[in-house]
Amino acid sequence: MVEAEGDLCELSEADHHPWPQVQSLFSLKDVKKNSLIMRCMLCAPKRTDIAAYKNSSSNLKKYVAVSVKRFQKKRGSDSATVDQPHSKKNPKIMSPFSSPATKVTQAVIDKLLINFVCEGNQPFSIVELPSFRKIIQTLQPQCTVMTRKTLRLKVQDTFKNMKVHVATTADCWSARQRSYMGVTCHWIDKAKSDTYKRLSRSAFAKCSALWNKTSRSVLAFETVERECKLQFLRPNQTRWNSLFLAVERLVRIQKEQGEQAIRNVCTALKIKMLNTAELGFLAEYATVMKPVAMALNLLQGESSVHMGFLLPTLHQLQDKLKRLESTCKVCQPLLKALQGGILKRFGEVMKEPELIAAAILLPKFRTAWTTDQSILTTGLTYIKEQLEISVENDTLCYSSPSDEEDFFASMNTGHSETGELESTCWLSSPGPFAIRPSPNTSAVKRQPRQLGSLSISVYLAVQRGDKGGSHLPLRDGEGDRSTGGEKRCSAADH
Predict the structure, then answer these.
(1) Where in this protein does the record put region Disordered (predicted)?
(2) What does pTM read for this prediction?
């Protein structure tokens, strides 16, 4: 834009205006190599010249738009100053009347036109009606109305995109000499439960800030000690249960010292306080994760290292999680994820006959760890098969002193049908050491605590009446094999 102070010489080409449609707004003043110099007639008496390309009037259009906005803004401010002198004192009352019109993009206009034509079953030619185009241009002057051909193509593209997400079926039938046609449409809405995600993210974000601040500052450490009487636990990425223990400690402090103690710590450390919903989420999270943490401690500990502990632990964990379904509200996604993860990881393992038999052979569990009779039948059948194999094997292997754990092979001991039946009855008996007495087992007072291949061999040897020590292997440090067997048998007899 060029502002000229002097008069420009009139051109003979002025009578031949390049754009007659804007002749009332601009007059031609000069012609250059690739551009035209136009003078704005709206700015009179001020002389304002605008340069425009010979093949485009976009500069003139932009100048008119800027001039109109400047004029409207100036007029609006003047009228507000004259007619509304107290508008600043009442901004909430006057703001709806002074706010500018809402701008709508071209994409929104096109989408609204497509919905209007499809939902109302309108013909495509409606967008070319002068009255319809006038409505759009009046409401949104900066937007244009698409042609009939463009509308048809956009409707086809919209149909293709929608077709991917829906499934339609059609059915035709007739009844009482009348034909019918039914069309159904099915679609899947993603199950979105943002409550758990929102609460978990906000709660753990505040907890992380609290854990980090209290573990890096001595003053923060003393503040927690003074207000909560207990210290917060910081999660460790290399420990499975560390996050659960940290949350459990926070919930414990809330129950013992009250919510105000945590609030005082957050205020002193300038950390956002957990709200009521987030505290409730943490309490429910600790309740859901407690059975999982107990199961992990049991399986990764050093006392319950028998193979038979695996399946009873998993079955007990599943039962505990199932009982939480009725009381769990916010942490339902977490509960379902845990149940699905157990089935996905251990589904096939829980069907292994060897693991089932190992659980049944432990006196701590026997057959009380599951109510599924098919699982118990599989385990008992596997045990009977292994007992039959042990009868056929007439060789005996001893463990070497260097072995970390004793390993006993099948022993050459016979057993009768009565002995096998007594073994099955012992496995099914309710007491920890209960056994139904028989004429051959009157001297047996109780069964050993660790029932394995050795215990079964001892039991079958007593059933047969063999009390010799040469058939019973010994552990290291229990004496010579020639005399130690008699000590082991005498301990079992008495």
Answers:
(1) 75-98, 466-494
(2) 0.46
